[in-house]
Design brief:
single chain, alpha+beta, eight-stranded antiparallel sheet, 3 helices, 8 strands, extended
Amino acid sequence: MKIQRILLIWTTLLLAVIPQFSCEKKEEHHHEQVETQKTDAHHEHTAPHGGTLVVFGDEFAHIELVLDQTTGKLTGYVLDGEAEKSVRLSQKTIELKIHREDIESDFSLQLSGVANVLTGETEGDTSQFAAQSDGLKGASEFHAEIVSITVQGQMFTDIDFEFPEGNEETHSEHGEH
């Protein structure tokens, strides 16, 4: 009786462990690596928060913009040239000029620095900026311009882009320094 019970336990354990080492999972992992290599070859970046990437200079830095269409809240995350690591800014606000063609509206929006107790970021030393605007409620697309931003001592002005496309494809054509 004890031997049968031990055999049953070992059989159950083996059946639970063996599928985790199947060939199918290895192929999926290999497929993911191939996709990553293809993406790197095109030098595209992935927005870590699922937003829109706007690039400054020749891949010097990025800002990722995430819009909550319901509330009209726009959050910007300043990132490095690879769009992977946060970059803190000393400026307290980032001004955007926004044009919504669908409702024929032009307005300015000041994204303010967001303090974060967990990271130690403060309003004048942060990588995150946010603002809420009724003009962005329900917006699925708009034209915008970042008036001025200084990242690691480099100033960038008049950065035009379309939301949600961003400017990853067109930034080198405009000479944004």
